[in-house]
Amino acid sequence: MQRNRFTPDRGLTTRMVVTMFLIGLLYVVFVGVLLAILRGSWPLILVIAGLLFVAQFWFSDKIAAFSMGAHEVTPEQAPELHGVVDRICALGDLPKPRVAIAESDVPNAFATGRNQRNTMVCATTGLLRRLEPDELEGVIAHELSHVAHKDVAVMTIASFLGVMAGVITRIALFGGFRRSSRDPGTAALVVLIPLISAAVYAISFLLTRMLSRYRELSADRSAALLTGRPSSLAAALTKVSGQIAAIPTEDLRKSQPFNAFFFAPALSAGSTASKLLSTHPTLERRLEQLAEITRELDRR
Length: 300
What we know:
Keywords: Cell membrane, Hydrolase, Membrane, Metal-binding, Metalloprotease, Protease, Stress response, Transmembrane, Transmembrane helix, Zinc. The chain is mainly alpha-helical.
């Protein structure tokens, strides 16, 4: 049952379920192969994998916020930002998240949290300084759309499973070396396990990238329909993308690891291959969709 006023997206829901199923299946197969190969190391692999998963699920939002330099602010400290969040939450019938600001000149915003009760929405100082109030509302509505659609938690878990493949591989290799230097199978394991891990990571990486691009389009659409001003969101997109291009590349590279969380990517895709690996659809595709929504609202 839809418990808020953000436009539901069945396509996004289907993609999230399929992505989680495929990555979960991939992860189970990967762990199963390691357990079959390294029989003596299975307790260590299972314990470490379980602890990492629990830690990621419960603390991923705090880790992401800390890594991006976000600090929570009160309504007295940031009245304009809190006012925008209050209006969007009232429009969308959504519980108000914690509000934070990140000290960065890179104009961007993001939302983190495994559910609606512990969500944080954050805007950078660079974004607040550059956007008009209606443009900021469009950006915040976009970020809260991720919360309403629950894709923030799905992306956090999905991306973590791919990373875990690499961690478990290191554990397995360490165990393989420790088993016995005289074991004739050790040399084969040293070659085989990294290859399996690379395949697991590559597949999970592509699956999460495809989901990430679709969820950005879904959030754009939900935000535009909720506020009724797709032109404001389009203006914010254009302004943010243009301003990001003027930021020194060194600063952008520091933000690039968090692209999947951001409203707009720190570094945009150029070639066709890089677009396939991008966390966001192209600016042209996003603006095209918003123009379609404008025509749709005009017809209504």
